[in-house]
Amino acid sequence: MTIPHQLSPAQAERNLWQRQRHQRSVWVALASTLGLAVLGWWGLVSSPGWQRVAESFFSWDVAVQAWPRVFEGLLLNLQVLVVTAIAVVIFALLLATVRTLRNPVFFPLRLLARIYVDLFRGIPLIIVLYLVGFGLPGLRLEWLGRMPAEVLGEIALTLTYSAYVAEVFRAGIESIHPSQRLAARSLGLSYGQTLRLVVLPQAVRRVIPPLMNDFVALQKDVGLISVLGAIDAVRGAQIEVARFANFTPYVLAGLMFVLLAVPTLRLTDYIAARLAKREVSATTL
Amino acid sequence: MTEIDWTKPRLRAEGIRKVYDDRQVLGGINLEVYSGQIVALLGSSGSGKSTLLRCLNLTESIDDGRIWLEQDEISKPGLNQDEIRGQIGMVFQQYNLFAHLTILENIALALVHVKKMKRTDAEAVAMHWLERIGLADKARQYPDKLSGGQQQRTAIARAVALNPKLLLLDEVTSALDPELVGEVLELIRDLKATGTTIVMATHEMEFAKAAADWVVFLDGGVIAEEAEAGEFFANPKAKRTQEFLARMK
Fold first, then answer.
1. What is the CATH number that goes with domain B5-97+165-248?
2. By CA distance, what is B93's nearest residue in A?
3. A59-279: CATH class
């Protein structure tokens, strides 16, 4: 909706000047970007080994022949990603809740949760993968059966990521002002109801941006299940690399992971911006 | 206006004592509140008004003394404190509305989860209260979209919707812009007219004079003076009371 208004000559002049300045900066930006791109391309192509690198990393023929197996592997990565993400949210919420219990009765549980979080944030993921992937089947438990490599990978990823995500949830829980709990308890809500109905919904909302960040990290790390022998995108690419004696399938797999990450990254930005906007207007607490 | 029932107290507190570390916040408070009565707690900041209110609804543990709600002693160990708190309403200086819920949901929440009403019934009750406080058109709004006065009226409605035996008000107008105080006081007057029993900590001397039946003046965690409201303001006896009233003028 615009309000009808006859611009004064002074404002018209200011607008014109601003428009011209804007146009000029667009041209400068365009020219400098192009210049940089040309310079970079020339630097790459003119290097003595470029011909061989182009053949062994960016071969179109190899990419076309390798992509079905790599893509099939990516579907497995996606499946592992979904299962792990859901398991992480459940387990991490449980850990975070235990860590914020105040009753002295829960001291042993609290201590256990704390040791767990410290341990799994400290230990490299690849070592957890080896321990779970080769140690768990090594126990020869009857009820465990023969677990597929991707399931073992899901377990290892969940163990590690839950430790990080639990700390994100805990920060969220502790950021909720105690007056919200006081109001809830004064209405007769129990400790558990207060946590479930008042504290957690607000806490989870508040930590969505850092959670999305962890999700992006997980999207890449699902590629590590290849070390356990699961035929995922990375492992598929490895097989194709061996077949063609050419590194292009790795680049292909890398590109696929990037394409997978882009929507999540944009969504993260969007949500963060929306929350920031809402935060500005919400000054009550 | 409903009459005060003097036969038996709605709330009785005896020798309430509260200590934080080495500091005594409440040093043996005796209080009786009768059905339909408004008791005003006066006193400067740090005199123990808020702590006393929190002790009365069991959100703060007491270090000595006993409390009865009607004939039941609620300070006995092993009782279901959540159930008791559900029978005592409390409203705070900073409103403390739940930021992630609409004002309708704010009022309906405890009706569903404490009073175990069906959601549709609870929302009908909540809507009835919003109509009464003149905010029915804002039912689906979130608290941060409302003015302080509107938020505080919602917070009061949230507490009284549970039909509590006693309503505790902790300086409910202290955080409000001066021009918004009136609408909240109006609602409290309205509640008094329908027989709600209220204990309120307040800095609004004029309102205490006009609406309260009984005034309790706290000083350093003990009752320095208490009297019927008219008598208290017209004829304060204790030296501390006289000084306090002179400063508040």
1. 3.40.50.300
2. A179
3. mainly alpha
Residue B146 token pair: 């409302």
| C-alpha–C-alpha distance, residues B190 and B149, integer Å | 15
Over the stretch B151-177, which tens digit does the pLDDT of each residue have?
999 999 999 999 999 999 999 998 888
Q: How far is B97 from chain A (nearest CA, A)?
A: 7
Q: What is the pTM of this model?
A: 0.82
- DSSP H or E stretch at residue A62: helix A60-100
pLDDT of residue A140: 77
Which residue from A minimizes the CA distance to B83? A188
CA distance A269 to chain B (A): 22
d(CA A218, CA A161): 8
Q: Phi, psi (5° rounding) for residue B33?
A: -125, 125
Q: In sequence order, what DSSP letters do the residues of B101-161 get, joined into one string?
A: S-HHHHHHHHHHHTS---HHHHHHHHHHHHHHTT-GGGTTS-GGGS-HHHHHHHHHHHHHT
User: What's the distance, CA A261 to chain centroid?
Assistant: 8
Q: Which B residues, 172 through 211, put their C-beta within 8 Å of a C-beta on chain A?
A: none
Chain B residues with CB under 8 Å of A184 CB are 98
Query: Does A266 score more than 70 pLDDT?
Result: yes
Q: Tokens in use for B225?
A: 């003076």
- Please give the residue of chain A at the shortest CA–CA distance from B142: A282
For the beta carbon of residue B162, count every other beta carbon within 10 angstroms: 21
CB contact under 8 A, B113 and A197: yes
The per-residue pLDDT for A278 is: 67
Q: What is the pLDDT of residues A156-206, one digit of tens each?
A: 999 999 999 999 999 999 999 999 999 999 999 999 999 999 999 999 888
Q: Which residue has the higher pLDDT, B1 or A163?
A: A163
Instruction: Sketch the domain layout of chain B as residue ranges.
Output: 5-97+165-248
ipTM of the complex: 0.91
Which DSSP letter does residue A186 get? Answer: H
